[in-house]
């Protein structure tokens, strides 16, 4: 959710859509984020709009997000590499044995 | 200690279970030939990687973004426990391995002095290996991390021995 908000403000409805949970659950989660002062909630007409606090973006998003993404996605690739290595090892064993 | 915790950036832990024996996962981490195949986020390539894999040795890797921009990372190995654990520092650098401010690459990061990263390799004994990556640790914490897992393994072995003894009875 924070990742979604890091791209810009979004309505509660818009935030619910990508997740397979009820709007009620999302609202509850948003309430936590508001209490943790990570998200600001404002009214725009009938809709509630959530915005990430700029300070929160700076401290939470930049480094941790970047770093986590770096490792998660590197691990995805590492998974493919070890699979390849495993296959090669089996081939070598067959050749030598 | 408490003061340090308050000021320290959020602790980063990434774990992954690989369907491969521990020696193989270790090899994929410690041989630049393989590191070049996985270093960097999705869509990035690693056109350069040099590693002097020994305590006190340094490494230098380059990752190339899809837009062609190169990001260089350097670091130093501080502790190596064969097939179990690597403690190292990791920083942004220039192409010569000289440390640079992350802002140089447009990344904001309040680096903690003496920050270390830890990676542990846990052998599940069934051909699977659990990798745990812990970022931004003080050297003291880095030294101690992984010990909890070591203890768990010891206890598991102990439990096996006990179970064996029970069966023999």
Describe, in plain words, how this protein is organized in 3D.
The complex is a heterodimer of chains A (97) and B (169). With 97 residues, chain A is α+β, with helices and mostly antiparallel strands. Chain A has a domain of 51 residues: Arc Repressor Mutant, subunit A, CATH 1.10.10. Chain A is built from four helices and three strands, in the order αβααββα. In chain A, strands 1-3-2 form a three-stranded antiparallel beta sheet. The radius of gyration of chain A is 21 Å and the shape is elongated. The model of chain A has no long low-confidence stretch (mean pLDDT 82). With 169 residues, chain B is α+β, with helices and mostly antiparallel strands. Chain B has one domain: Alpha-D-Glucose-1,6-Bisphosphate, Chain A, domain 4 (2-Layer Sandwich), CATH 3.30.530. Chain B has five helices and seven strands, in the order αβααββββββαα. Chain B has a seven-stranded antiparallel beta sheet. In chain B, β4 and β5 form a beta hairpin. The radius of gyration of chain B is 18 Å and the shape is globular. Chain B starts with a helix and ends with a helix. Classes of the chains: A alpha+beta (97), B alpha+beta (169). Chains A and B meet through α4 of A and β1, α2, α3 and β7 of B.
